[in-house]
Amino acid sequence: MALYSYCLLWFGTFAGVQLTAFDPATPHITIFSLLFAVNVVFYILLRSGISERFKDPSLTVFQMIAGILAVTAVLYYSRELRGAMLSIYLMILTFGVISLDRRRLLMMAIFIQACFSLLLIGEGILAPQQVIFSYQLGHWFILALVLGSFVYVGGYIHNLQSRVREQREHLRQAHDRLAAIAIRDDLTGLYNRRYFLGRLEEEMALASRNGSPLHLAIIDLDHFKQVNDTYGHQAGDEVIRRFSAVASVGLRRSDILARYGGEEFVVMFPHASTTACVAALNRLREEFAQQHYPFSDALTNTFSVGVVQYQQNESAQEFARRADEALYQAKSQGRNCVVKG
Protein backbone atom coordinates (compact mmCIF):
# COMPACT_ATOMS: atom_id res chain seq x y z
CA MET A 1 0.00 0.00 0.00
CA ALA A 2 1.07 3.60 -0.51
CA LEU A 3 3.38 4.88 2.20
CA TYR A 4 1.49 8.15 2.45
CA SER A 5 -1.60 6.18 3.59
CA TYR A 6 0.34 4.83 6.54
CA CYS A 7 1.74 8.27 7.30
CA LEU A 8 -1.78 9.65 7.35
CA LEU A 9 -2.89 6.85 9.67
CA TRP A 10 0.07 7.52 11.96
CA PHE A 11 -0.70 11.23 12.07
CA GLY A 12 -4.33 10.49 12.96
CA THR A 13 -3.23 8.08 15.67
CA PHE A 14 -0.72 10.58 17.06
CA ALA A 15 -3.36 13.31 17.10
CA GLY A 16 -5.81 10.91 18.74
CA VAL A 17 -3.31 10.19 21.52
CA GLN A 18 -2.76 13.89 22.11
CA LEU A 19 -6.52 14.50 22.22
CA THR A 20 -7.03 11.48 24.54
CA ALA A 21 -9.20 9.74 21.94
CA PHE A 22 -6.64 6.91 22.10
CA ASP A 23 -5.04 5.20 25.05
CA PRO A 24 -2.10 7.41 26.13
CA ALA A 25 0.03 4.25 26.21
CA THR A 26 -0.45 3.69 22.48
CA PRO A 27 3.01 2.73 21.10
CA HIS A 28 2.33 4.56 17.84
CA ILE A 29 6.00 5.19 17.11
CA THR A 30 6.85 1.48 17.49
CA ILE A 31 3.88 0.36 15.39
CA PHE A 32 4.57 2.70 12.51
CA SER A 33 8.34 2.23 12.64
CA LEU A 34 7.77 -1.47 12.08
CA LEU A 35 5.26 -0.67 9.36
CA PHE A 36 7.76 1.68 7.67
CA ALA A 37 10.41 -1.06 7.76
CA VAL A 38 7.96 -3.52 6.18
CA ASN A 39 7.22 -0.99 3.44
CA VAL A 40 10.94 -0.55 2.78
CA VAL A 41 11.17 -4.32 2.29
CA PHE A 42 8.24 -4.23 -0.14
CA TYR A 43 9.84 -1.33 -2.00
CA ILE A 44 13.14 -3.21 -2.38
CA LEU A 45 11.34 -6.35 -3.60
CA LEU A 46 9.35 -4.39 -6.17
CA ARG A 47 12.17 -2.18 -7.45
CA SER A 48 14.74 -4.98 -7.62
CA GLY A 49 12.45 -7.22 -9.66
CA ILE A 50 12.51 -10.01 -7.10
CA SER A 51 8.74 -9.74 -6.82
CA GLU A 52 8.45 -10.84 -10.46
CA ARG A 53 9.09 -14.38 -9.25
CA PHE A 54 5.73 -14.37 -7.46
CA LYS A 55 2.38 -15.05 -9.10
CA ASP A 56 1.32 -11.53 -8.10
CA PRO A 57 4.35 -9.29 -8.82
CA SER A 58 2.74 -6.34 -7.02
CA LEU A 59 2.55 -8.39 -3.80
CA THR A 60 -0.96 -7.08 -3.23
CA VAL A 61 -2.02 -9.72 -0.71
CA PHE A 62 1.14 -9.38 1.39
CA GLN A 63 0.85 -5.60 1.46
CA MET A 64 -2.80 -5.85 2.47
CA ILE A 65 -1.99 -8.29 5.28
CA ALA A 66 0.63 -5.87 6.63
CA GLY A 67 -1.91 -3.05 6.56
CA ILE A 68 -4.63 -5.13 8.21
CA LEU A 69 -2.33 -6.15 11.07
CA ALA A 70 -1.26 -2.53 11.59
CA VAL A 71 -4.85 -1.27 11.67
CA THR A 72 -5.82 -4.04 14.09
CA ALA A 73 -2.97 -3.03 16.40
CA VAL A 74 -4.11 0.59 16.31
CA LEU A 75 -7.73 -0.42 17.00
CA TYR A 76 -6.59 -2.17 20.18
CA TYR A 77 -5.65 1.22 21.65
CA SER A 78 -8.62 3.15 20.26
CA ARG A 79 -11.47 4.23 22.50
CA GLU A 80 -14.50 6.13 21.32
CA LEU A 81 -13.10 6.26 17.76
CA ARG A 82 -13.12 2.50 17.20
CA GLY A 83 -16.43 2.45 15.35
CA ALA A 84 -15.25 5.15 12.95
CA MET A 85 -11.81 3.61 12.48
CA LEU A 86 -13.28 0.33 11.30
CA SER A 87 -13.69 2.07 7.95
CA ILE A 88 -9.89 1.95 7.52
CA TYR A 89 -10.28 -1.77 6.88
CA LEU A 90 -12.35 -0.83 3.83
CA MET A 91 -9.56 1.44 2.60
CA ILE A 92 -7.26 -1.57 2.66
CA LEU A 93 -9.79 -3.70 0.76
CA THR A 94 -10.09 -0.93 -1.83
CA PHE A 95 -6.39 -1.39 -2.52
CA GLY A 96 -7.11 -4.93 -3.70
CA VAL A 97 -10.27 -4.34 -5.74
CA ILE A 98 -8.45 -4.04 -9.06
CA SER A 99 -5.89 -6.80 -8.49
CA LEU A 100 -7.89 -9.43 -6.60
CA ASP A 101 -10.81 -11.46 -7.86
CA ARG A 102 -13.91 -11.97 -5.72
CA ARG A 103 -12.61 -15.19 -4.13
CA ARG A 104 -9.35 -13.62 -2.94
CA LEU A 105 -11.16 -10.45 -1.91
CA LEU A 106 -13.47 -12.64 0.21
CA MET A 107 -10.44 -14.33 1.80
CA MET A 108 -9.02 -10.92 2.75
CA ALA A 109 -12.39 -9.92 4.23
CA ILE A 110 -12.44 -13.12 6.28
CA PHE A 111 -8.89 -12.35 7.44
CA ILE A 112 -10.00 -8.86 8.54
CA GLN A 113 -12.99 -10.29 10.43
CA ALA A 114 -10.75 -12.90 12.05
CA CYS A 115 -8.22 -10.27 13.16
CA PHE A 116 -10.96 -8.09 14.64
CA SER A 117 -12.50 -11.12 16.33
CA LEU A 118 -9.15 -12.00 17.92
CA LEU A 119 -8.83 -8.39 19.03
CA LEU A 120 -12.19 -8.54 20.81
CA ILE A 121 -11.39 -11.90 22.37
CA GLY A 122 -8.04 -10.57 23.59
CA GLU A 123 -9.68 -7.54 25.15
CA GLY A 124 -12.19 -9.80 26.90
CA ILE A 125 -9.35 -11.83 28.38
CA LEU A 126 -6.92 -9.00 29.26
CA ALA A 127 -9.35 -6.30 30.40
CA PRO A 128 -12.82 -7.81 30.94
CA GLN A 129 -13.87 -4.93 33.21
CA GLN A 130 -13.51 -2.45 30.36
CA VAL A 131 -15.44 -4.46 27.81
CA ILE A 132 -18.95 -3.40 26.88
CA PHE A 133 -20.25 -6.53 25.23
CA SER A 134 -23.10 -4.85 23.36
CA TYR A 135 -20.69 -2.37 21.73
CA GLN A 136 -18.28 -5.12 20.74
CA LEU A 137 -21.04 -7.27 19.31
CA GLY A 138 -22.45 -4.29 17.43
CA HIS A 139 -19.05 -3.45 15.96
CA TRP A 140 -18.48 -7.07 15.01
CA PHE A 141 -21.79 -7.40 13.14
CA ILE A 142 -21.46 -4.00 11.47
CA LEU A 143 -17.99 -4.89 10.22
CA ALA A 144 -19.18 -8.28 8.93
CA LEU A 145 -22.11 -6.67 7.12
CA VAL A 146 -20.02 -3.92 5.56
CA LEU A 147 -17.26 -6.33 4.52
CA GLY A 148 -19.79 -8.66 2.90
CA SER A 149 -21.33 -5.80 0.95
CA PHE A 150 -17.89 -4.50 -0.03
CA VAL A 151 -16.76 -7.90 -1.30
CA TYR A 152 -19.87 -8.16 -3.46
CA VAL A 153 -19.42 -4.68 -4.94
CA GLY A 154 -15.65 -5.08 -5.18
CA GLY A 155 -16.04 -8.37 -7.01
CA TYR A 156 -18.41 -6.73 -9.45
CA ILE A 157 -15.91 -3.91 -10.05
CA HIS A 158 -13.10 -6.42 -10.55
CA ASN A 159 -15.18 -8.40 -13.06
CA LEU A 160 -16.03 -5.18 -14.86
CA GLN A 161 -12.35 -4.25 -15.01
CA SER A 162 -11.52 -7.72 -16.33
CA ARG A 163 -14.12 -7.39 -19.08
CA VAL A 164 -12.75 -3.97 -20.00
CA ARG A 165 -9.21 -5.41 -20.21
CA GLU A 166 -10.45 -8.29 -22.35
CA GLN A 167 -12.27 -5.91 -24.67
CA ARG A 168 -9.15 -3.78 -24.98
CA GLU A 169 -7.12 -6.86 -25.80
CA HIS A 170 -9.68 -7.93 -28.42
CA LEU A 171 -9.59 -4.44 -29.91
CA ARG A 172 -5.80 -4.50 -29.99
CA GLN A 173 -5.79 -7.89 -31.70
CA ALA A 174 -8.41 -6.68 -34.19
CA HIS A 175 -6.31 -3.61 -34.87
CA ASP A 176 -3.23 -5.77 -35.43
CA ARG A 177 -5.19 -7.99 -37.81
CA LEU A 178 -6.45 -4.99 -39.75
CA ALA A 179 -2.94 -3.56 -39.89
CA ALA A 180 -1.64 -6.90 -41.17
CA ILE A 181 -4.41 -7.11 -43.78
CA ALA A 182 -3.46 -3.63 -44.98
CA ILE A 183 0.14 -4.61 -45.72
CA ARG A 184 0.10 -8.41 -46.07
CA ASP A 185 -1.00 -10.78 -48.81
CA ASP A 186 -3.69 -13.18 -47.60
CA LEU A 187 -2.38 -16.27 -49.38
CA THR A 188 1.33 -16.02 -48.66
CA GLY A 189 1.64 -13.71 -45.69
CA LEU A 190 4.20 -11.67 -47.65
CA TYR A 191 3.99 -7.92 -48.05
CA ASN A 192 1.45 -6.85 -50.64
CA ARG A 193 2.01 -4.60 -53.66
CA ARG A 194 0.78 -1.40 -52.02
CA TYR A 195 3.12 -1.74 -49.08
CA PHE A 196 6.03 -2.66 -51.33
CA LEU A 197 5.60 0.38 -53.55
CA GLY A 198 5.59 2.62 -50.47
CA ARG A 199 8.80 1.01 -49.21
CA LEU A 200 10.32 1.27 -52.66
CA GLU A 201 9.94 5.06 -52.60
CA GLU A 202 11.53 5.19 -49.15
CA GLU A 203 14.48 2.99 -50.11
CA MET A 204 15.04 4.95 -53.31
CA ALA A 205 15.17 8.22 -51.35
CA LEU A 206 17.60 6.63 -48.89
CA ALA A 207 19.80 5.33 -51.71
CA SER A 208 19.82 8.76 -53.38
CA ARG A 209 20.79 10.46 -50.14
CA ASN A 210 23.49 7.98 -49.08
CA GLY A 211 24.69 6.82 -52.47
CA SER A 212 24.19 3.20 -51.38
CA PRO A 213 23.35 0.50 -53.95
CA LEU A 214 19.74 -0.62 -54.35
CA HIS A 215 18.51 -3.42 -56.61
CA LEU A 216 15.02 -4.42 -57.68
CA ALA A 217 14.13 -7.90 -58.93
CA ILE A 218 10.84 -8.98 -60.50
CA ILE A 219 10.19 -12.74 -60.38
CA ASP A 220 7.65 -14.60 -62.48
CA LEU A 221 6.87 -18.29 -61.94
CA ASP A 222 7.34 -20.12 -65.23
CA HIS A 223 4.32 -21.75 -66.90
CA PHE A 224 2.20 -21.18 -63.83
CA LYS A 225 -1.02 -21.24 -65.83
CA GLN A 226 -0.28 -24.84 -66.81
CA VAL A 227 -0.06 -25.79 -63.13
CA ASN A 228 -3.52 -24.34 -62.52
CA ASP A 229 -4.97 -25.96 -65.64
CA THR A 230 -3.42 -29.37 -64.93
CA TYR A 231 -3.67 -29.70 -61.14
CA GLY A 232 -6.25 -27.10 -60.16
CA HIS A 233 -6.14 -23.76 -58.40
CA GLN A 234 -5.50 -25.29 -54.99
CA ALA A 235 -2.33 -26.81 -56.37
CA GLY A 236 -1.42 -23.43 -57.83
CA ASP A 237 -1.92 -21.83 -54.43
CA GLU A 238 0.34 -24.45 -52.88
CA VAL A 239 3.08 -23.64 -55.41
CA ILE A 240 2.80 -19.93 -54.62
CA ARG A 241 2.94 -20.60 -50.88
CA ARG A 242 5.91 -22.91 -51.34
CA PHE A 243 7.83 -20.27 -53.28
CA SER A 244 7.02 -17.69 -50.61
CA ALA A 245 8.32 -19.99 -47.87
CA VAL A 246 11.51 -20.83 -49.76
CA ALA A 247 12.18 -17.19 -50.62
CA SER A 248 11.51 -16.00 -47.08
CA VAL A 249 14.13 -18.40 -45.75
CA GLY A 250 16.64 -17.95 -48.58
CA LEU A 251 16.84 -14.15 -48.63
CA ARG A 252 18.42 -11.79 -46.12
CA ARG A 253 16.41 -10.18 -43.37
CA SER A 254 17.13 -6.79 -44.91
CA ASP A 255 15.75 -7.87 -48.30
CA ILE A 256 12.14 -6.90 -48.86
CA LEU A 257 10.03 -9.61 -50.50
CA ALA A 258 6.46 -9.04 -51.65
CA ARG A 259 3.81 -10.63 -53.81
CA TYR A 260 3.32 -8.27 -56.73
CA GLY A 261 0.22 -9.96 -58.13
CA GLY A 262 -0.77 -13.43 -59.38
CA GLU A 263 2.42 -15.43 -59.86
CA GLU A 264 4.68 -12.36 -59.82
CA PHE A 265 6.90 -11.45 -56.90
CA VAL A 266 9.29 -8.59 -56.26
CA VAL A 267 12.43 -8.37 -54.15
CA MET A 268 14.24 -5.22 -53.10
CA PHE A 269 17.92 -5.62 -52.23
CA PRO A 270 19.26 -2.64 -50.23
CA HIS A 271 23.02 -2.36 -49.68
CA ALA A 272 23.94 -5.26 -51.97
CA SER A 273 26.07 -5.52 -55.09
CA THR A 274 24.71 -6.75 -58.39
CA THR A 275 26.85 -9.88 -58.15
CA ALA A 276 25.47 -10.69 -54.69
CA CYS A 277 21.88 -10.15 -55.85
CA VAL A 278 22.28 -12.41 -58.87
CA ALA A 279 23.94 -15.10 -56.73
CA ALA A 280 21.11 -14.97 -54.18
CA LEU A 281 18.46 -15.21 -56.91
CA ASN A 282 20.21 -18.17 -58.54
CA ARG A 283 20.40 -19.99 -55.20
CA LEU A 284 16.72 -19.32 -54.71
CA ARG A 285 15.94 -20.56 -58.22
CA GLU A 286 17.81 -23.81 -57.64
CA GLU A 287 16.16 -24.38 -54.24
CA PHE A 288 12.70 -23.75 -55.66
CA ALA A 289 13.30 -26.21 -58.52
CA GLN A 290 14.05 -28.97 -55.98
CA GLN A 291 10.67 -28.72 -54.25
CA HIS A 292 8.32 -31.72 -54.21
CA TYR A 293 4.53 -31.52 -54.01
CA PRO A 294 1.99 -34.00 -52.66
CA PHE A 295 -0.27 -33.64 -55.70
CA SER A 296 2.47 -34.50 -58.23
CA ASP A 297 5.88 -36.16 -57.94
CA ALA A 298 6.79 -35.12 -61.47
CA LEU A 299 6.15 -31.38 -61.12
CA THR A 300 9.23 -29.17 -61.25
CA ASN A 301 8.76 -25.44 -60.94
CA THR A 302 11.12 -22.73 -62.13
CA PHE A 303 11.00 -18.98 -62.37
CA SER A 304 12.46 -16.15 -64.43
CA VAL A 305 13.97 -13.01 -62.95
CA GLY A 306 14.87 -9.56 -64.13
CA VAL A 307 17.09 -7.55 -61.77
CA VAL A 308 18.29 -3.96 -62.14
CA GLN A 309 20.21 -1.44 -60.04
CA TYR A 310 18.71 1.88 -59.05
CA GLN A 311 19.98 4.90 -60.98
CA GLN A 312 20.12 8.33 -59.39
CA ASN A 313 17.06 10.55 -59.88
CA GLU A 314 14.95 7.97 -61.71
CA SER A 315 11.35 7.51 -60.69
CA ALA A 316 9.85 4.41 -59.14
CA GLN A 317 7.90 3.79 -62.37
CA GLU A 318 11.11 3.93 -64.42
CA PHE A 319 12.92 1.70 -61.94
CA ALA A 320 10.15 -0.91 -62.12
CA ARG A 321 9.88 -0.60 -65.89
CA ARG A 322 13.58 -1.47 -66.35
CA ALA A 323 13.21 -4.49 -64.04
CA ASP A 324 10.17 -5.61 -66.03
CA GLU A 325 12.15 -5.31 -69.28
CA ALA A 326 14.91 -7.47 -67.79
CA LEU A 327 12.25 -10.04 -66.82
CA TYR A 328 10.93 -10.02 -70.37
CA GLN A 329 14.46 -10.74 -71.60
CA ALA A 330 14.73 -13.66 -69.20
CA LYS A 331 11.53 -15.13 -70.61
CA SER A 332 12.77 -14.55 -74.16
CA GLN A 333 15.95 -16.46 -73.37
CA GLY A 334 14.02 -19.59 -72.49
CA ARG A 335 12.95 -18.82 -68.89
CA ASN A 336 14.45 -20.32 -65.71
CA CYS A 337 17.24 -17.75 -65.59
CA VAL A 338 18.32 -14.43 -64.06
CA VAL A 339 18.91 -11.45 -66.38
CA LYS A 340 20.62 -8.23 -65.31
CA GLY A 341 19.10 -5.07 -66.77
Average pLDDT works out at: 86
Distance between the termini: 70 Å
Strand order of the largest sheet: 2-3-1-4-5
- Which geometry do the CA atoms define? elongated
Query: Unreliable segments (pLDDT under 50, ≥5 consecutive)?
Result: none
The helicity comes to: 55-70%
- Tell me the radius of gyration: 37 Å
Summarize the main sheet.
5 strands, mixed
Order of helices and strands: HHHHHHHHEHHEEHEHE
Task: Report the sheet-strand fraction.
Answer: 5-15%
Query: Which structural class do the helices and strands define?
Result: alpha+beta
Provide the domain count.
2
The number of E-state strands comes to: 5
Number of helices: 12
How would you sum up this structure, described in words?
The protein is α+β, with helices and mostly antiparallel strands and 341 residues long. It folds into two domains: 3-176, no CATH class; 193-340, Reverse transcriptase/Diguanylate cyclase domain (Alpha-Beta Plaits, 2-Layer Sandwich), CATH 3.30.70.270. 65% of the residues lie in helices and 9% in strands. The protein is built from twelve helices and five strands. The protein has helices spanning 3-18, 28-48, 60-77, 82-85, 87-95, 102-126, 133-183, 193-210, 224-231, 233-250, 274-289, 316-332, and strands spanning 214-221, 256-261, 264-270, 303-309, 338-340. A five-stranded mixed β-sheet has the order 2-3-1-4-5, with helices on both faces. Strand 2 and strand 3 form a beta hairpin. The longest helix has 51 residues, at 133-183.
